[in-house]
Amino acid sequence: MSSKSVIQAGRATAKKTISPETKQSILGLAMVLPSFAILLIVVIIPIVQSFILSLSNDAGGYDLSRYAYLFTDKGMRGNIVFTLRITAITCAAVLLVSYSLAIYMRFNQGPIVDLIRRTYMIPLFIPGVIATYGLINLLGNHGWLSRILETVGVTLPRIIFDEKGIIIANLWFNIPFTTMLLSSALAGIPSSVIESAKDVGVGRLRLFTRFIFPLSYKTFLVALTFVFMGVIGSFTAPFLIGANSPQMLGVSMQQVFSVFQEREQAAAIAFFSFLLCSVLGAFYIRSMAEEEKGKM
Amino acid sequence: MQLSVRELAKRYKTGDGVGGINIEIEKGELVTLLGPSGCGKTTVLRSIGGFLEPDSGDILIEGKSVIGLPPEKRPTSMVFQSYNLWSHMSVYDNLAFGLKIRKMPKAEIRGAVADALKLVRLSGFEKKYPAELSGGQQQRVALARSLLLNPAVLLLDEPFSALDAKLRHEMREELREIQTKTGLTMVFVTHDQEEALSLSDRIIVMNHGRIEQIAQPHQIYDEPASLYVAGFIGKMNFLEGVAEEGGIRIGSLVLPNGKELRGRVTAAIRPEDVQLSANHGTEGVLKGRVKQIMVLGHYAEVTVELAGYGIIRAFQSKEAMQRLQAGQEVGVSISKLTGFPVEEAKAN
After folding, report:
1. Most confident of A278-287, B211-220, B306-315
2. Are residues A92 and A191 in the same domain?
3. Same domain, A23 and A115
């Protein structure tokens, strides 16, 4: 056999060894690789680094003392409870307001609906710092709302530098996007489905509990996850509007890191915040998996 | 009277809508609202179902006005064009839901659902989800869901339009069978004249938001009340003629016409009422030339150009068709026609 024919035979053998399935797998991997690389560099490696850092103690060894501190220190424990309380109240309030707005816009028509539709997105276009200072000017002790109310003898309760201020700011930041998400989910429910439900005699409450909510539940969970993760890790509004104590975890983490310069403790707070978000993430994934399983 | 619609009117912002709608439907009747898209048939149906509030008029079901009542409070049930099964519920839940709302005991619900599924030939499908069913099966479930509620009037909004021709034909037969079995009063909306003719006890032909004619299928076909109905139902030839004392004259032909007409008229002639013969030179026969022969299975549609009158189409049997060829001169005779004033033709 000549050397040319040997090479050709070799090529033929090489061609045969890569099956279409393998080619598809390689292509699939190649497409996933860039996003996985970004995830690795931006999320996974920093988390692992933070976790390793958070395990180091003052004696130069490794233990869980930084995590123990989170639960034994009264101030830090207060911060965790405060953060969870603010997050829970915000999630409930945002979802309630956004769901109500989305339902109102979906099933009604007229000038009020048009007005809401045109204006509810405005907060998304105002930078967070500016919006927060705007709220301070509006709701602060010497803000203009307070001054107006003083003229009629009403004293505005403390809102700024209080948890009420943080919650109001959170509502401002989260309602537009959540409303948009839920509106699109509700728009996906055909009117005819609602009509057929009414046709069999379904009243308003049952229409919501048995049709509208189950058919938009998936987006509701997505919205809840977004709001929860956004609020639990929020910094700007709690930093500018919140009280000195208790603090939200984001503000506390910044203080521990920059003011007290305790990098290891800040890493422990960061990793703990990540764990809190992971709990909701796991709940979301489980719910979706169960729904998919139910369909099969 | 099971259903009475009196002077119903509904106008949309676009100017479309319906007006002067008067319908009386007896218990156990299957009445079809027939007309082209945008004629207002669905507006009438949705007004009866409570999905639209009319501007004026009244709707009475079993003698009681239902105006102002929401759909859930009306003794009606609707089968929608797009099936509208609830995708997050099984077939059983789709059917049982309305009965649960009516607080029917569980054991009775189970029995009723089983009976309804048997009626629509879907026994054993209880646990399936809508996504697992074919279009025809989904529409059967939708029909069963409405039947279970035992409505005073069952409304059907083009329920078979999304199905293929064969399935549509089967579903028509099934619906008629179910209607006969249950004795339900049904109002059926369709734009398909064949569907209307084959299903209905009576047909209401609508055009531009108004009722053109209410009659039994054979009357609609044989005695159209307007030129519009004549043209909308089945195939029809239109020729210009002159109304005289003895009837309507078209060339040397004079044919009787039941209506009192004078002057220029439009004569509506069914293709099956047109006869072709080799004899084209005698009195009482119009002279024509065969333009085209279209074989349509067991019969043929022959297009003939009439000297001075334009085109006329005739249905011919297989045997008669074999004696004809394109370009051949033929004699055209007409056995029956209906005359309409020329103004009506202009209005349409």
Report:
1. B211-220
2. yes
3. no
- CA-CA distance, B19 to B43, in Å (whole number)? 10
Mutation target for B interface from A191, A193, A198, A199: give the one with most B CBs within 10 A. Answer: A199
Determine the pLDDT at residue A293: 65
Q: Are residues B256 and B317 in the same domain?
A: yes
The C-alpha of B254 sits at a distance from chain A's nearest C-alpha, in angstroms, of 55
pLDDT, one tens digit per residue, over B306-332 is 888 889 999 998 888 788 888 888 999
Q: Tokens at residue B343, please? A: 């103004």
Same domain, A234 and A146: yes
Over the stretch A72-130, which tens digit does the pLDDT of each residue have? 999 999 999 999 999 999 999 999 999 999 999 999 999 999 999 999 999 999 999 99
* Contacts B82 to A, Cβ<8 Å: 190, 192
State the Cα–Cα distance between residues B266 and A20, nearest whole angstrom. 70
Residue whose tokens read 């239902």: B66
Number of Cβ within 10 Å of residue B1's Cβ equals: 12
- The CATH code of the domain that includes B16 is 3.40.50.300
Is B43 inside a domain boundary? yes
Question: Residue A64 domain-assigned?
Answer: no
- What's the domain range around B318? 237-347
Q: Is residue B232 one of the residues assigned to a domain? A: no
Q: Give how far the C-alpha of residue B301 lies from the chain's centroid of Cα atoms, to the nearest Å.
A: 23
| B84 and A CB contact within 8 Å | yes
Please check whether residue A103 lies inside any domain of the structure: yes
pLDDT tens digits along A227-277: 999 999 999 999 999 998 899 999 999 999 999 999 999 999 999 999 999
Q: Where are the beta strands (DSSP E) in chain B?
A: 3-11, 17-25, 30-34, 56-61, 64-65, 76-79, 153-157, 186-190, 202-207, 210-215, 237-244, 247-250, 253-255, 263-269, 274-277, 286-295, 299-306, 310-317, 329-334, 338-341
A238 plus A264 within the same structural domain = yes
pLDDT at residue A21 is higher than 70? yes
Given a cut of 80, whether residue A295 has pLDDT beyond it is no
Residues B138 and B256 in one domain: no
* Domains of chain B: total: 2
Full-model pTM: 0.76
